[in-house]
Amino acid sequence: MPKLTVDGIGVFDVPQGKRLIAALREEAGTDQLHACGGKARCTTCRVEFLAGEPEQITAAEKAILEARGVSGVRLGCQIACDHDMTVRVISRLEGSGRKDCGSPYTPEIEPQPVEWVSK
Known about the structure:
By secondary structure, the chain is α+β, with helices and mostly antiparallel strands. The chain is built from two helices and nine strands.
């Protein structure tokens, strides 16, 4: 089982391949935002990697980050926990003014079909 370290929160065992957004909410108990339901459309699920950043990125994640001019972060909805990683949650419900964390997400990375590209 991969270990997910969440800065300032703790270390958690995560089932192999689980979406990072799901692990942050379910294993770590964070109030990580995911407004679009994990479909790589809004960037509210962004996290900062402190260690173990994945080498690949989905085409959907790369496109939305470039379109929004966002750098130095990754989208938790587009990452599978398949190795040990350390992240900082930077997009939380607390202080956001939103009524909830966001729409439900599926266990699988979306949108389908997932296309992996170089960072």
